[in-house]
Write a structure and sequence with these properties.
It contains 21 helices and 16 strands. By secondary structure, it is α/β, with parallel strands linked by helices. α7 (about 155-170) runs parallel beside α8 (about 185-195).
Amino acid sequence: MAGSEQRVLMLIDDEPAQCRLISALAAREGWRTIVAGDPDTAIAMLGTRAGMQLSAIILDQWVPGDDACQLIEELKRRRPALPILMLTTSASPLLAVEAMRAGATDYLIKPIAPDRLLEALRAATEGEKPQDELQPLTEKIPAKLDFESMVGNEPRFRTALAQAAKAARGHGHVLIEGESGTGKEMLLRAMHAASPRAKAPFRIINLAGVPANSIESVLFGHEPAAFAGAFDRQIGALQQCDGGTLVLDEVDRLNDTLQAKLLEMLDCGIVRPLGASHGFRIDVRLLSASNLPLEQLASVGKFSAALLDRLGHTTIKLPPLRERAGDIPALTRHFLARIGDQPGLRHLSITDSALSLLKAYDWPGNVRQLQAVLFRAAVFCDQEALGADSFPQLSELLGEQPQESDASMHEGAGVLLYTEDGNLRPLEEIEADVIRLAIGHYRGRMTEVARRLGIGRSTLYRKLADLGIESAA
């Protein structure tokens, strides 16, 4: 992008290496970066020719320190329309809340993946429609590592959880496919926590966040002088996870050479670092995730069919949120309970009109996006409940709020009462869904579940057995 169309980014940062990295990344998409090393310089630069052309600001929280929110407020006072992204090493939800209330558009945790940085810049400067509320925030709320925290009753989703719970108890490799934001990483963590290797080495590598020319070294390791700049020996992730589990997120990013090398390692059980004259025998379980259907990629020669056979010993497919809209009320209440536990926030309820609005949207960012939207709405809510007016961007995108359809009137809070042909579902199925919903709503506290359902604990466990509901389902 050249000339007058070039966007200008102000980077408030005093680390030369980080400034060079962010400037280089932003330049890939046509940004010209100007750097301010301190708050006073940044404010002064707003009045310069380049400052008047700014399209966005990235602020490293380390520069103003505890005064970061004050600096954000001052920048927003002078330039209200400018999106501000705060870069920090802190994962504190309280800092995220304070930054957003001060006017920050997004909150990025270091070290940040290049794709995430560019995604945040794109979302913050979207020209056609304001998308602030719908951009995917970096997740700041830690998730429980168990299957019971995976909320939902849609049949395909329950099937995926049952497959994962069964596979977790084995030692075979597992592949999870699903769109970005459907909960693949959370499911993989739950599988590891429930596996025989739960206390063994465990590591997650998002291949999209690793430079392409570094992936081989990260996975297999290298010896000194294996390539230019390799001054020390590095033990690869595969060897580090010997006896344990390695998660390869976005495994479809592997190139043909690395696919072949990984397949060879799986076949012989030996990992050979770059530049090494010998290999090391290892025992590692691979849990992989892909946003793309690998079978389709393999059918057109874009992924190794042989490697897919090895990685996909068990293949689990997570449905997108738009195909499980009936789960949105239960997911919403689950997320609001977790959000309310965070410092600086409080527990909120939600109105029926707001739930109808959430159910009407198709959620291209899936469950992660729903959580981000609820988080942002909770930050700015000064009432006791979120209403439809708490989601202005959704209202703008959807237009007039849709009326409740006949089908939606047949749904409870995530429990479907009628079949597609209009007949009532069997009582046994409805009872199973209600019990699953209660387990998710009360976060697996079985005494509370039994009390709220008006039955004894022994009766509850008998029903779980009779209905075929596993404790991890």
